[in-house]
Design a protein that fits this description.
CATH topology: Aminopeptidase
InterPro entries: N-FG_amidohydro
Pfam families: FGase
Number of domains: 1
Radius of gyration: 18 Å
CATH class: Alpha Beta
Protein name: N-formylglutamate deformylase
Number of strands: 7
Number of helices: 7
Largest sheet: 7 strands, mixed
Structural class: alpha/beta
Strand content: 5-15%
Organism: Putridiphycobacter roseus
Length: 266
């Protein structure tokens, strides 16, 4: 079984930061690909398109990047493994092995939704394998530096009515209300992000998903932050095609964040 992730190795001396991109995958394992609606497979509307490309500067700073191979429609790496809700405010969010996309449209052919046995198989094969690799990378850095930060990188459509009726802000930094990372590093990240031209929210409307909450253990010198980014910042107006000009502006905002975090963690 091939690894359900890709690794982008650092080109410079390593630093105590790992970037995770769990929702940019577009592949489907051959054994289940035929279960999905062909029309949905052509669109993959819930994909965090090209997010690892937005962070292509990371390797030059000594940061390792791990990004998912498979689509979140196979299994969502940023959901609770027991499908416990991450929010209790009534918003509708797709599940661990969702039957629909963000707009409530079915993604599987009739009677092909995964049963519990299949969900457990996907957890073991794809989900926990990704988590184990993330933890191994974090352990490696912590052994070398005594501390480590995981940055979980996401993007989302400008407007998703099932989550909220209003358009999303440009960027949202999440740390589960200051629980998943050192306060100094939180302030470093948010203050540096806000030096750019974008609107930056903090823990609203997203506090960080399961990855941030699972790996963020400040008491163990293991920290985690999530950045949710509006797709129109780096894609075209239809949010389906990568826009190199827009993405270049985003990179000028993101790269200094990591440069400042590296200094703060030294």
């Amino acid at each position: 079984m091939p690894d359900p992730f890709y690794i982008i190795e650092p080109k410079a001396p390593k630093v105590p930061i790992i970037i995770s991109v769990p929702h940019s995958g577009t592949d489907f394992p051959e054994e289940i690909k035929q279960d999905y609606l062909e029309g949905q497979l052509k669109v993959l509307d819930d994909t965090d398109w090209n997010v690892e490309e937005v962070y292509d500067f990371a390797s030059e700073l000594g940061i390792t990047v791990i990004h998912a191979k498979y689509s979140r429609w196979v299994i969502d790496l940023n959901r609770d493994p027991e499908s416990k809700p991450l929010y209790n405010d009534g918003r509708i969010i797709t599940g661990l092995c969702s039957y629909t996309d963000f707009f409530g449209r079915p993604i599987y052919k009739a009677a092909q939704d995964p049963n519990q046995e299949e969900v457990e198989r996907r957890l073991k094969t794809y989900y926990w394998t990704y988590y184990q690799k993330v933890q191994a990378l974090l352990d490696e850095r912590k052994a070398e530096f005594g501390k480590v930060l995981l940055w979980d990188a996401h993007s989302i459509r400008h407007l998703v009515p099932s989550i909220q009726k209003e358009p999303f802000p440009d960027m949202i930094l999440g740390n589960n209300d200051h629980k998943t990372a050192d306060q100094e590093w939180i302030e470093t990240a948010i203050n540096t992000l806000r030096k750019g031209p974008f609107q930056v929210n903090h823990n609203t409307p997203f506090k960080g998903g399961h990855i941030t909450r699972y790996f963020g253990k400040p008491a163990e010198n293991q920290h985690a932050l999530q950045l949710e980014m509006n797709k129109i910042l780096y894609m075209n107006e239809e949010e389906m095609k990568y826009d190199t000009v827009r993405a270049s502006i985003v990179k000028t905002v993101l790269k200094p964040v990591f440069q400042e975090l590296i200094k703060a963690m030294a």
